[in-house]
Amino acid sequence: MCGTVTRPASNDDPRLKQMIALRDAIVSNPPRRTRVTQATERPISFNEEMVRALLAGRKTQTRRLAGADRPTGPCKFGAPGDLLWVRERWAPHRRNDRTFVYSADAKRPQRVTWRPSYHMPRQASRIVLEIIDVRVERVTDIREPDARAEGFDDSDRLWKDARGWFHQLWDRINTEPGTRWNDDPWVWVIAFRVRPLRHAGAQRRTRSGRRAARLSSVTARPA
Q: Please, which residues bridge with residue 131 across strands?
């Protein structure tokens, strides 16, 4: 019996040339691996007035001191795409240590020992902000639309314009020499969007049917 002999492909074979060209292209240009980067999270504190503005959707900007001189480095609060988890005055629920209550939700004085915002752990935070823009400017450079984005309430008839409201707000929060409005310090202007809350609201009741603390309490879920 005679076996079938297959002749080796000639260098002039078009199919062989295509295979060699494809091999060379893959070797010289390997596929690139896509790097998956995770957003950096940092804490940021707000007082009760500003927390209520965040929850109401009125606040989409915040200004933070950058110093007497124009900063040259990156913003310490982050860059676009980074996340800020909000710290506020809070307290653990007296009947459930995984549930928290917040001073900004209190409609009237309560028998609650509020803890300062800087003591808030990450798991107690109920608001997360995603940075969309960062710039630097003098605090007095703020314009009327930006002052509104700082949380101005149109129903507040004490102020004719948002810029005047922000002026008094800034001086009420920043009291140290060199930080006040007339000192005109440099500030970081951080624009953000509020991410959807990742927890469920809960209202606890006592056995007698009365609300335990008459506050909005929140069961936090790990973000």
A: 192
